[in-house]
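User: I'm new to structure prediction. If I give you an amino acid sequence, what do you actually give back? Let's try with this one:
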Amino acid sequence: MLTSASVTANIPAADLARARSFYADTLGLTPATEVADVGMLIYRTDGGTAFSVYQTEYAGRAGHTIAQFHVDDVVAEARALQAKGVALETYDMPGVEWDNGIADMAGMGHAAWFKDSEGNILCLDSGFPKG
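Assistant: Good question. You get back a string of structure tokens that encode the predicted 3D arrangement of the chain. For your 131 residues, that looks like this:
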């Protein structure tokens, strides 16, 4: 039924201007489109995907990862975020070893979690699961 559909992330923001600044200054992303009448920014990555950041009072309430950025070098990207003042999150996950906020995912590559300006949990990963 949905096998030919594409999927995007919708990321909530309590303060859209603050979120725009975080995504630009910290993550290096610029909105491709702004839908001002509904308070939404739409981002497109060079990797061919899109996600939106939208204004809502419910931002930052999810206790789980809401979007993942699949990158070639998790360690380099995570260290670059740390250099910009972003704190990496760690979690109690069986079989996972941590090195300064970067998880070794037991044969599935590396991952690093962080929060955006709105308290949403985002993840850098090496593209797992594969296949």
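You can read the tokens as a compact description of the fold. Here is one thing that stands out. Strands lie at 9-13, 33-35, 40-44, 50-55, 65-70, 88-89, 97-99, 102-104, 110-115, 121-125.
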